[in-house]
């Protein structure tokens, strides 16, 4: 169990020989290293932060995968703070701390004449210069880590990781700046930055990473892409500008989806609105319908379930009326809009509307003829089944949700994000049904499949808290071990 901030960390020597630790050091995966410290040394995020000269928030973000350590100075600070042995330091790519002087070099110790020669030099609060044979009894590492928690080191730890003037924006803050039109780019027409092929590839990569639940990767790359697309839309004319607007609509759709998953509803609203503006500018009905999906999602997250249902059904009717040919792209966007409206209806306990929209979506899936990913919708008959599980859950029918889930072949779901969503919904239904052990097992499977879907999403953390609150003591213990292992605090 993680210790209190003022408790010393006792890191067993065996930790540095574990294969998982050696792999984390070789890959410079500091987030994984911090997880191993929690697991094998019982270290809390605050204790790690104090020893490594970071803030608890930065440690948490690193453990969740949303922040990567890249600079040598920070690697050195972490290695020093954890008192890594030289073998571990070298595996991390750092120089060892202990060097043996050649025999020809004589070291001379100069002692101040006012100090008695037989006294050891004083050790200041926060110093690591502790002689285990002279200073005090007990484990040296335990004492060293305790002194790191006091005085000057505590002061430095609090201030060390605060950004200075001009520090680059990261994570959600970078999204906020990009959505606000932060002037961080001076691209020119025809440059590599504004190449339409590059922008098209970058948007497709962002969507693929999102569907693979690699959210930290999307968060790191998407704000810059949004700025590039904004410049492209302002630079190009004619059909090229329409193409740029369509890509901007899709990129802002991904941004809104990520922000909704992280519970940043205000920023998500801005991104969803930008997606719809760009979609209209693109003059592409399927892109407009796709952007309507994220508008509907934002409305749902804000509690406007009636408006969300109306928005989805209205846009579905509009693109159906205005489209002459029911292509696979059209059927996928149309069916996905109906599913979004059905979920919103389920959230307001409107069973009739939910059932009607589900049946219409089922018909679109049947006409499509299979499970595909046209326009990045993951739409098809199986996706309709996934939504039946979710809607039964929203209506409080846990038994019906489980029955629907039993009919789904997980291997037929092509996307990681969709599989993880089904597993989480099934775990919630099992919790409602009182099947706590099975709910716990399912959520573990979801984490193996999509770690960031479990560790990074506040909504999933609420699911874990619900499971913890209602589970018997034996399952509670397993849940505590699991959440500690993945760095989630309940």
Automatic annotation (TrEMBL):
Gene3D superfamilies, sorted: lambda repressor-like DNA-binding domains
Family matches, as InterPro entries: Cro/C1-type_HTH, Lambda_DNA-bd_dom_sf
Protein name: Helix-turn-helix domain-containing protein
Organism encoding this protein: Actinomadura alba
């Amino acid at each position: 169990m993680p210790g209190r901030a003022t408790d010393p960390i006792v890191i067993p020597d065996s930790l540095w020989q574990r294969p998982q630790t050696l792999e984390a050091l070789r890959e410079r995966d500091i987030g994984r290293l911090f997880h191993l410290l929690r697991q094998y040394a019982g270290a809390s995020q605050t204790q790690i932060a104090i020893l490594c000269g970071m803030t608890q928030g930065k440690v948490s973000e690193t453990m969740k995968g949303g922040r990567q350590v890249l600079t040598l100075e920070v690697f050195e600070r972490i290695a020093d703070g954890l008192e890594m042995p030289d073998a571990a330091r070298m595996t991390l790519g750092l120089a060892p701390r202990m060097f043996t002087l050649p025999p020809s070099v004589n070291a001379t110790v100069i002692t101040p004449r006012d100090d008695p020669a037989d006294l050891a030099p004083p050790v200041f609060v926060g110093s690591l210069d502790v002689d285990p044979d002279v200073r005090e009894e007990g484990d040296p590492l335990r004492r060293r880590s305790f002194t790191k928690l006091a005085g000057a080191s505590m002061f430095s730890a609090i201030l060390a990781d605060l950004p200075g003037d001009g520090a680059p924006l990261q994570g959600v803050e970078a999204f906020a700046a990009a959505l606000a039109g932060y002037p961080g780019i001076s691209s020119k027409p025809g440059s590599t930055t504004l190449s339409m092929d590059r922008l098209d590839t970058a948007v497709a990569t962002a969507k693929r990473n999102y569907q693979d639940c690699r959210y930290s990767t999307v968060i790191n790359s998407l704000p810059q892409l949004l700025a590039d697309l904004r410049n492209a839309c302002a630079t190009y004319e004619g059909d090229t500008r329409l193409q740029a607007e369509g890509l901007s609509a899709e990129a802002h759709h991904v941004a809104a989806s990520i922000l909704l998953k992280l519970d940043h509803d205000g920023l998500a609203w801005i991104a969803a609105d930008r997606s719809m503006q760009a979609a209209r500018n693109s003059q592409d009905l399927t892109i407009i319908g796709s952007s309507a999906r994220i508008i509907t999602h934002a409305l749902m997250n804000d509690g406007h379930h009636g408006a969300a249902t109306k928005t989805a059904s209205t846009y579905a009717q509009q693109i159906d009326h205005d489209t002459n040919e029911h292509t696979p792209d059209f059927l996928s966007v149309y069916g996905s809009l109906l599913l979004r409206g059905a979920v919103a209806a389920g959230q307001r306990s409107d069973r009739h509307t939910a059932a009607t929209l589900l049946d219409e979506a089922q018909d679109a899936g049947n006409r499509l003829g299979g499970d595909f990913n046209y326009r990045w919708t993951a739409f098809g008959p199986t996706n309709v089944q996934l939504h039946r599980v979710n809607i039964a859950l929203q209506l409080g029918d846990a038994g019906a949700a489980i029955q629907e889930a039993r009919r789904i072949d997980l291997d037929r779901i092509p996307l990681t994000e969709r599989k993880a969503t089904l597993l989480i919904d099934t775990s919630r239904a099992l919790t409602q049904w009182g099947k706590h052990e099975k709910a716990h097992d399912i959520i573990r499977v979801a984490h193996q499949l999509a770690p960031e879907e479990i560790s990074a999403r506040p909504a999933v953390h609420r699911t874990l808290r619900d499971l913890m609150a209602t589970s018997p003591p034996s399952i509670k213990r397993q849940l505590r071990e699991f959440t500690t292992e993945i760095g989630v605090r309940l």
